[in-house]
UniProtKB/TrEMBL annotation:
Keyword line: Transferase
Domain GST C-terminal: 85-209
Gene Ontology BP term (one): glutathione metabolic process
Species whose genome carries this gene: Campylorhamphus procurvoides
GO MF term set: glutathione transferase activity
Occurrences of domain GST N-terminal (ranges): 3-83
The keyword Transferase appears for this protein: yes
Gene name of the encoded protein: Gsta3_1
Protein name (record): glutathione transferase
Length: 222
């Protein structure tokens, strides 16, 4: 095996996409293994590879890591994207947790029953514009710096640009009332490692389609 981290998940965004984003932002190349059948997933469980019988699975530095939050914080720490002290880490953790709550809504949208999709989309718009994005607009405006924490690029910035782009896919004008976030989006999108990740042909996954939803239900069915 090469020295590259190895990511095992489905060929779609899901809970692995923030891991792909963070590695890409850190300039780290990685390999991917895509689960396509329930048998592949069951074999990982049988072999004892998945600590809690769940993916994402990331093999890095001789470890087989599960639990998205643990994976992300390890990568952030390893590549110096986790602040300079405990206080900065606490801020990054708070911001990341908030963004994760917003992303959870997006994650579940493709699995909504047809009659609930419009309601769930309205809820996403309401929460993004009234609860989550105002926080980051205010933070950026108050300290007048380019990044969320310590004026240094961190895990929180990576999560935020991922969330902004994911919400915009569903609600194109969502940033219309947030000039600081518009500027942040432009700046982040032009950072060399992120710009590369946003190009066609990168490991970034497209929005989930019906095929992805079918594969998820097939692989994880009990």
């Amino acid at each position: 095996m090469s020295g590259k981290p190895r990511l095992t998940y489905l060929n779609g965004r899901g809970r692995m996409e923030p891991v792909r984003w963070l590695l890409a932002a850190a300039g780290v190349e990685f390999e991917e293994v895509f689960l396509q059948t329930k048998e592949q997933y069951d074999k990982l469980i049988k072999d004892g590879v998945l600590l809690f019988q769940q993916v994402p699975l990331v093999e890095i530095d001789g470890m087989k890591m599960v639990q998205t939050r643990a994976i992300l914080s390890y990568i952030a720490g390893k590549y110096n994207l986790y602040g300079k002290d405990l206080k900065e880490r606490a801020l990054i953790d708070m911001y990341v947790e908030g963004i994760s709550d917003l992303m959870q809504m997006i994650l579940m949208l493709p699995f909504s029953p047809p009659d609930a999709k419009e309601k769930n989309l309205d809820s996403l718009k309401e929460k993004a514009t009234n609860r989550y994005f105002p926080v980051f607009e205010k933070v950026l405006k108050q300290h007048g710096q380019d990044f969320l924490v310590g004026n240094k690029f961190s895990w929180a910035d990576v999560q935020l640009i991922e969330a902004i782009l994911a919400v915009e896919e569903k609600i194109p004008a969502v940033l219309s009332g947030f000039p600081q976030l518009q500027a942040f989006k432009t700046k982040m999108s032009n950072m060399p490692t992120i710009k590369k990740f946003l190009q066609p042909g990168s490991p970034r996954k497209p929005p989930p389609d019906d095929h992805y939803v079918e594969t998820v239900l097939k692989v994880f069915k009990r």
